[in-house]
Amino acid sequence: MEIRYRSTRGGAEVSASEAILKGLSDDGGLFVPARIPKLAISIEDLVQMTYQEIAYEVMSRFLTDFTEEELKSCIRSAYDSKFDTPELTPLVKAGGAYYLELFHGPTIAFKDMALSILPYLMTTAAKKNKSDKKIVILTATSGDTGKAAMAGFADVPGTEIIVFYPKDGVSEVQEKQMVTQRGDNTHVVAIKGNFDDAQSAVKEMFNDRQMNEEIGRAGCQFSSANSINIGRLVPQIVYYVYAYTRLVREGEITSGDPINVTVPTGNFGNILAAYYAKRMGLPVKTLICASNENKVLYDFFQTGEYNRNRDFILTSSPSMDILISSNLERLIYQLTGNDPAACAAFMADLTQKGVYRITDEMKAQLGDFYGGYAGEEENFAGIKKLYQDTGYVIDTHTGVASAVYGQYVKNTGDQTPTVIASTASPFKFADAVIGAIDPTKAEGKSGLACIDLLARTAGLEEPPAITDIRTAPVRHNTVVEAADMPKAVLEILGIR
Ligand SMILES: *Cc1c(COP(=O)(O)O)cnc(C)c1O
C-alpha cells in the first residue's frame, strides 16, 4: 500500500519522491509518513540477508513510489566499495555493550550511511517527477553532514551543493575535509555564528517565497541534505535492523529478544530512525538519548519543556553542539496525535520565544525514551577506561553515548543487551581522543601530530580519508556573516 507524506504543520500530502525532492514542506514543516509501515518479512529471514538486502526490505516499505529496480539501483550504487568493509557497519562487542560502527564510509562519520544514497534517491526522484530544474542542495553542518553530503553530490549532474559551517565550531579534521572538497558543483561557506544560526538561516531560505521564485526563474530549486529531509532518515533505519540481525546471527540474542539502543544525539535524526525501526516492529525496548553539555533534550525528557534559551557550549563532540534539534518536531507531531495545528503552535513558540512545554498527556507517551547527558570529564574518563580495559578506542561523540549508557545501567539496573551507535572514527577527533587516553603524550600536540600519535598508541591504521587531507589543496575559503547567507547563495548560483 502506498505511503504518503504530510507536513508536520499541515498542507497537502505528497509522495515519497516528492518529499525527498522538496526536502522541507512549504509551510516550514517536516515531512512525515502518514503511517509507519511494518517490516514485511520475519527477523529469521532478515538474519540471512546482507546489508544491501536488508536496506531494500526496509526502504521499500517507506519509499513506495520507487520501483524495485530504481531502489535496488540506488542501493547498489551507494553501498559499494566506498565503504572500507564489506559488512558496511560492523558490530563490535566491548565493555558490556555492542558498538555499531557507522563510520566505515568515505568521510568516516555516520552521515555517510544516508548521504551516500541520498543523491541517488534525489536524482531518481527528480526523474520520476519530471523536474528539469537544477537541484540546489543547501546544507547547514555541525561538521560531518557537510563533508558527507559533498562527497555524495560531488559532480552529480543536475545538482549544485552549498554547505554552511560554523567557522570556529568544527574540529580541525572536519574543517580540512570540507575546504579541500573537490567537484565543480561543491561550495563551502564558513559563517560567523554557530550551527543553530546556520540551520535557521537555511530553513528561512527554504521558506523565502521571493528567493525561491528568483532561483526558479534561473532554472533552480532548493532541496536539503540535512536530516530534515526524510530521504536522510529512512536509510538510517536500516542499520538498526541490521544490527539486530547480527546479534541474532552471532548468538548474542534469540530472535524476538528486546534490545536497547543508545544514540549520541544532536539534531535528533539518528535516534528518530531507531524509534522508527522500533515502530516497524523491531524488538527495541528503550531508546537512550545521549546529549553532551548542550543538554536541551535531556531537560526536555525530564520536564516536558524544550528551552533553547541558554548558552551554546562548544564541546569536544561538536557534531552534537546543537540547541534546536530539528527532528524532534517529527516526534512532537506524533505526540499531538498527528495534529498539525498543535505542532505548528509549539514550533511557533520555539521560534518566537525559544521555548515550549508539551502537555502531560503528550509527556506520558515518552516512555520509550531515556534522556541522559555527559560532560567533558566524564566523557574523557570513559574513553580512557574503555581503552585501558579492552583496547577499544571510540570517538568523543560515541564517548558521550557510552558514558550515558553507563549512567543508565547504574540508575535502572537494566541488563538488556544494548547497541551503541558509534557515529565517528576516533581519527576524526584525534586531538580529544588521544588527549583522553594519554594526556601526557598529547600535550602541546594538535592536528596531524595527534593522528600519528593515536595510530601508534592504539595500533590502528590511519583511514584513507585522513591520508587524503594531508596533501589535498584548499579549494574553499569564503567566510560570511550569518545574515549574508542568502546573498552568498545567489552569488554562487550566478544570479546576482
Ligand atoms: C551528526 C552527528 C551526531 C548527531 O546525530 P543527529 O542525527 O544529528 O542526532 C552524532 N555524532 C556524530 C559524529 C555526528 O556526525
Provide structural commentary.
With 496 residues, the chain is of the alpha/beta class. It has a domain at 91-107 and 231-461: Rossmann fold, CATH 3.40.50. The protein has 23 helices and 16 strands. The chain has helices spanning 16-22, 43-47, 51-62, 68-78, 111-115, 118-128, 145-153, 172-179, 195-207, 209-217, 230-249, 269-279, 296-303, 328-335, 340-353, 360-363, 376-390, 396-412, 430-437, 439-442, 448-458, 464-471, 485-492, and strands at residues 5-7, 10-14, 31-33, 91-94, 97-101, 134-140, 159-166, 186-192, 220-224, 259-264, 284-291, 305-307, 355-357, 369-373, 418-422, 478-481. The strands form 4 sheets. It has a 6-stranded mixed beta sheet with strand order 4-5-15-10-11-14, sandwiched between helices. Strands 9-6-7-8-16 form a 5-stranded parallel beta sheet, with helices on both faces. Strands 2-1-3 form a 3-stranded antiparallel beta sheet. It is globular and about 60 Å long. The N and C termini lie far apart (46 Å). The relative contact order is 0.14. The mean pLDDT is 96. Bound molecules: pyridoxal-5'-phosphate.
